[in-house]
Design brief:
74 residues, 3 helices, 0% strand
């Protein structure tokens, strides 16, 4: 899937996005019951399934980009 951007740049962006998903998931998982009742905790609770799905999606995207990069690199 070519977007016109170099694969190396796409890979960098994908890693950044994945890191954001991971940070939010880790924040949620570190919360105790009391913290999950806060506004931030409720926000993360409402989005946790999507965050986990997003993490899986971007991990796969990174794998695909890395494979493309490896094929292009001599």
């Amino acid at each position: 899937m070519s977007t016109g951007r170099p694969i190396k740049e796409q890979l960098s962006t994908a890693r950044y996005i994945l890191a954001q998903f991971i940070a939010q998931i880790e924040e949620f998982e570190a919360m105790n019951r009391e913290q999950r009742r806060t506004q931030r905790g409720q926000d993360l609770t409402a989005r946790i399934d999507g965050l986990r799905t997003g993490r899986t999606t971007w991990e796969q995207r990174i794998t695909n980009l890395q494979n493309e990069h490896d094929q292009e690199t001599p």
